[in-house]
Write a structure and sequence with these properties.
The structure is a single chain. This protein is mainly alpha-helical. Among the domains are: 2-104, Winged helix-like DNA-binding domain superfamily/Winged helix DNA-binding domain (Arc Repressor Mutant, subunit A, Orthogonal Bundle); 508-601. It has helices spanning 28-39, 47-54, 62-75, 80-83, 97-103, 106-119, 122-135, 140-152, 156-172, 176-192, 196-209, 217-232, 236-253, 256-272, 276-292, 297-313, 317-333, 342-353, 357-374, 379-393, 396-408, 414-423, 427-439, 443-446, 449-462, 466-478, 486-502, 506-522, 526-542, 546-563, 566-580; strands spanning 2-5, 8-11, 16-19, 22-24, 45-46, 84-87, 91-94. The chain has a 4-stranded antiparallel beta sheet, covered by helices on one side. A hairpin with a 4-residue loop joins strand 2 and strand 3 (16-19). Helix 11 packs antiparallel against helix 12 (217-232), helix 16 packs antiparallel against helix 17 (317-333) and helix 21 packs antiparallel against helix 22 (414-423). The longest helix is centred in the middle third of the chain and has 18 residues, at 236-253. The termini are far apart. Residues 98-107 and 583-601 have low confidence and may be disordered.
Length: 601
């Protein structure tokens, strides 16, 4: 049977679709859809009838049917959108060109949607384009606009379905680079939704679409996504090469967004590989490039979040705080809200370091709500931060709940759980967990390697395993770049103090612990300084200098009280009670003397 209408012919005997006399390649199932609509073009074909006719005995979703209709419209060419008309909640009908022109008023609607898109009015864009899509279907760039609007109003799953249709539409039309660009967007979205297999599938699709193409913007963004996947898979060298290629393509094609995001992931790869100087230079340059160039909000946010995250993993709190301030000013200058999503999470970390635990917890809980909707791949990281805030308060039960939740979401929490067991007074268990974290090749462990080594030295000393402590300190001496930040140097002083205390060198231990507290104080990390003071107080008390111990403990208590760290304050009270009962008296203390903790209330 041959069906002729407008400029189209559907030859069922030859299973050919011809547009203006030219045969158009079309998938078998899509041809069946067109043929059935042509056979019944005098009426509206209900969705259920079309599904049963083309997919007999197969369960097919509305989204699959809509995708098939979209591909059928694409196959019909420029007039396809008007040739197949959608009747909302009823079905579809194939109509003549003259009838199609009078039946649709979508052109003004699309133009209005494009104007709203330029103004950033996402709700209006989505409303108009969805109406147009229901009537005659969207193709090409308007599908992408609709998808972007869906993302901006917090409906990412809807965006994915629209982008999948866009890839199909561009592919049918032979627009391979456009199809590849959307495939890269889909790979990035699937990655952020913790769907690595689907992300890799879209990466492979984009690679195939770009075969034979010259170096172009689409290839650059493909390399950027591939770099992210490589880094998560612990392939630091491969990640660095891919990120650098993305950066270079950005320079070649004049895409400042691509150049900036490529550079920040070059920095991450270098830091993971242990090339600290090169990594820091790259991330600082990337952050500066955001200010120097007119990058998009998406690229600027991704760069700053990366810079602050990488700074925090190295306990480089000073760098994190400076770039956080810069990012706030950058956002304010663009009229954007500061610290959306991931950036808000990193701000919470900075607040916690500075002792503002209430603000830190408020920020991280808002972040968790945001990430669960828009970037679930990072939700586990936010639970890690919440656990660290709870641990800073001394609330070990809440810290454990948060770390377990992070583990459920796929994050390796060995390092954090090791610190928690140490805080709970179990150095042997803590040592085992930290040893596994150091040996692990998981990305979440590798980014904390320097911190894990120093903490391991502290924990091993407290567990009485002095040879292990010395080995850890020797490994640090061989790689000083791992502990080159001020905070890491302060932590290293604490580790040396713990070793000296365990070896009975009390005066040397006191010297190291005092220096640790001083360094933490100098970088505005009062809670870390207070913890060093607590340990210093213990060493002083054990060596008989009760008055100095009382002063250090009182100073630590004041910090914990001001920060609302109730659990840490309770620990200080327990220490003070023991001293008052004379149960922590060292060799120089007088028997029977009650110790008065001066300055305590």
């Amino acid at each position: 049977m041959l069906h002729r209408f407008s400029r189209f012919e559907i030859d069922e005997n030859k299973r050919e679709l011809r547009v203006d006399g030219q045969v158009v390649a079309v998938q078998p199932r899509i041809f069946d859809v067109l043929a059935y609509l042509a056979r019944h073009r005098e009426r509206v074909v209900p969705k259920e009838e079309l599904l049963e006719a083309v997919w007999p005995g197969v369960i097919v979703t509305d989204a699959s049917l809509q995708r098939a209709i979209s591909l059928a419209r694409v196959a019909l060419g420029e007039q396809g959108g008007r040739a197949i008309r959608t009747y909302p909640r009823k079905g579809y009908r194939l109509i003549e060109e003259g009838e199609a022109v009078s039946a649709t008023g979508s052109k003004p609607g699309v133009e209005a949607a494009r104007a709203a898109y330029a103004a950033g009015d996402w709700e209006t864009v989505l409303k108009i384009l969805r109406e147009v899509d229901d009537l005659e279907g969207l193709v090409g760039e308007d599908l992408q606009r609709c998808a972007h609007a869906a993302q901006c109003v917090g409906r990412p799953q809807e965006a994915i379905e629209l982008l999948e249709r866009a890839v199909a539409a561009y592919t049918v039309r032979g627009e391979r680079r456009a199809a590849a660009w959307v495939a890269v967007l889909l790979a990035h979205l699937r990655f952020e939704w913790r769907e690595p297999i689907l992300a890799k599938g879209w990466v492979h699709r984009a690679e195939r679409l770009l075969e034979g193409e010259a170096r172009c913007r689409e290839l650059g963004y493909l390399r950027f996504v591939q770099a992210r996947l490589a880094l998560v898979a612990n392939e630091a060298e491969k990640g660095a090469e891919l990120a650098d290629e993305a950066r270079r393509i950005g320079v070649e094609v004049g895409d400042v967004d691509l150049e900036a995001v490529g550079l920040v992931f070059v920095g991450e790869a270098q830091l993971i590989a242990g090339n600290v100087a090169e990594g820091l230079a790259a991330i600082d340059e990337a952050a500066a490039a955001v200010v120097a160039n007119n990058v998009s909000s998406w690229a600027g946010g991704l760069v700053y979040c990366g810079v602050i995250f990488l700074s925090m993993t190295r306990a480089d709190w000073h760098r994190a705080a400076e770039w956080s301030g810069q990012f706030t000013r950058w956002c304010e200058g663009r009229g954007a809200a500061a610290y959306p999503g991931l950036c808000r999470m990193h701000r919470a970390e900075v607040c916690a370091v500075r002792g503002d635990l209430a603000e830190a917890e408020r920020e991280i809980r808002l972040t968790l709500e945001n990430l669960a909707q828009h970037a679930p791949w990072a939700e586990g990281d936010a639970w890690m931060v919440l656990g660290e805030i709870a641990m800073a308060r001394g609330d070990h039960a809440k810290a454990r709940e948060a770390f377990v939740r992070a583990h459920e979401l796929g994050w390796d929490a060995q390092f954090q759980l090791g610190l928690l067991r140490f805080a709970e007074g179990e150095p042997a268990e803590a040592e085992a967990l930290l040893a596994r974290a150091i040996a692990s090749e998981a990305w979440a462990c590798r980014v904390h390697r320097g911190r894990a080594l120093v903490h391991y030295a502290i924990v091993a000393a407290r567990a009485g395993h002095l040879e292990k402590t010395r080995s850890a300190l020797a490994a640090i001496d061989e790689r000083p770049e791992l502990v080159s930040t001020s905070a890491m140097q302060a932590l290293l002083e604490q580790a040396r103090g713990e070793l000296a205390a365990a070896e009975g060198r009390a005066s040397e231990a006191v010297k190291h612990l005092r220096e640790s507290a001083r360094r933490f104080q100098a970088i505005d990390a009062p809670l870390a300084a207070a913890q060093s003071r607590c340990r210093l107080a213990c060493v002083l008390a054990e060596s008989g200098d009760q008055e100095s111990a009382a002063m250090e403990l009182a100073a630590a208590r004041a910090v914990f009280r001001g920060a609302g760290a109730e659990g840490m304050l309770a620990q200080c009270e327990a220490m003070r009670a023991k001293w008052s009962e004379g149960r922590m008296r060292g060799p120089g203390a007088e028997r029977g003397r009650r110790v008065v903790v001066r300055g305590a209330k």
